[in-house]
Amino acid sequence: MAITLTESAATHVQNFIAKRGKGVGWRLGVRTSGCSGLAYKLEFADEVAPDDIQFESHGVKVLVDPKSLAFLDGTELDYTREGLNEGFKFRNPNVKDQCGCGESFNV
Q: What confidence tier does 103 reach under pLDDT thresholds 50, 70, 90?
């Protein structure tokens, strides 16, 4: 089981945390949403919850709750620039289908 960040994603997360001035890492999860059923949830983590599963990638602590891990196991999070657009991109091997806009997915 692993969740990883590319070097580019880790750099952006570290910069976000530094600008924010606090945080122990990055929390990754899923929520029910969208036309395909699930959507990714990213947020700063100010503390580690007792049931969090922790991963370390390029110096960034990634925290995942046990329920989300079943949908996220093996995911790599990248930060990409494509033309004028930039943002996080999820490479999740569990995804079977996703909506046309890319906001939600199904496993």
A: low
- Which pLDDT belongs to residue 53? 96
Please say whether the beta carbons of 20 and 74 come within 8 A: no
Distance of CA 34 to the CA centre of its chain: 17
Cβ within 8 Å of residue 62, ≥6 positions away: 3, 4, 5, 25, 26, 27, 28, 54, 55, 56, 77
Kindly report the backbone phi and psi dihedral angles of residue 81, in degrees, each rounded to the nearest multiple of 5, phi listed first: -120, 125
Residues in the chain: 107
Handedness of CA 70, 8, 57, 65 (dihedral sign): negative
